[in-house]
From TrEMBL:
InterPro entries according to UniProt: DUF4262
PROSITE patterns documented for this protein: PROKAR_LIPOPROTEIN (PS51257)
Pfam families: DUF4262 (PF14081)
Lineage of producing organism: Bacteria, Pseudomonadati, Acidobacteriota, Terriglobia, Terriglobales
Listed name of the protein: DUF4262 domain-containing protein
Length: 247
């Protein structure tokens, strides 16, 4: 299948979902930036699209539920609303308008679909109980200083490791708690935990771009130099120490 054929197939799917549901949800993951998801087609009813950026606490099915529920409520009022949205067990969400430096970089599928260079986009913001380090403030212009986890949205990858490197981590680390152990098991796969790794349950684990954690916490830089099979642990003084390889 050629590039043009793939594009037309994708556009047809978007058209079908808009006709059926009133909008299409586009989820983007992989690479050095956090996952994000946005709508295409909602702007035909409320004059803007929605985006949920980062928020890796939520699984894929949760992301769809959150966006669909909020989109449904917005269609009823037909406009932007500052009223908080409650979405089941997923928490309380508010909306804020985004700066064009974000929308022009992230909503490429929507821009392509409508053949425009810019459009109005509103960010879905989780409550404090569901905040994670990958959630940017998109009302402000993009900046690697204020949105570190999104540093590589506009900057070149600076580490001598694969740009698609990932880390299995836990929710505590993603909520900003100090990481205490790290290991590299494959060329592009790490484990990084706040607390003892064996105590982390499957429900608490998330797989994120390694760049998300490196950008959010500069003290993690030493883990980049680990060879496959090597690990580090951190003491109360935050000093890293080597431990024996799995071999």
């Amino acid at each position: 299948m050629s590039k043009d054929e793939r594009r037309e197939r994708a556009l047809n799917q978007i058209r079908e979902n808009i006709a059926r549901n009133g909008h299409h949800i586009y989820v983007v993951s992989g690479g050095s930036c956090p996952r994000f998801a946005y709508t295409i087609g909602l702007s035909e009813q409320v004059s803007f699209e929605l985006i949920l950026a980062g928020a890796i606490l939520y699984l894929y099915k949760d992301v769809n539920q959150i966006i669909n529920n909020i989109a449904r409520e917005l269609k009823l009022v037909g406009r932007f609303s500052k009223t908080p949205f409650a979405v089941g067990s997923q928490g309380i969400f508010t909306l804020r308008e985004t700066h064009s430096s974000w929308s022009s970089s992230l909503l490429l599928g929507a821009l392509d679909y409508y053949q425009v260079k810019e459009m109005s986009v509103v960010q879905i913001v989780p409550d404090n109980d569901h905040w994670t380090v990958d959630i940017p403030d998109m009302s402000e212009p993009w900046s690697s200083t204020t949105a570190g986890a999104w540093r590589w949205l506009h900057e070149s990858w600076t580490y001598a490791i694969p740009v698609n490197s990932v880390a299995t981590t836990n929710i505590q680390a993603l909520r900003g708690e100090r990481t205490t152990e790290a290991a590299r098991w494959e060329e592009n796969e790490w484990e990084i935990f706040a607390g003892a790794g064996p105590d982390v349950t499957e429900n608490e684990m998330r797989v994120v771009p390694l760049g998300t954690l490196l950008a959010a916490d500069k003290s993690l830089d030493p883990i980049v130099d680990l060879a496959v099979g090597e690990g580090l642990w951190r003491d109360a003084s935050s000093d890293w120490h080597p431990w024996h390889s799995r071999k």
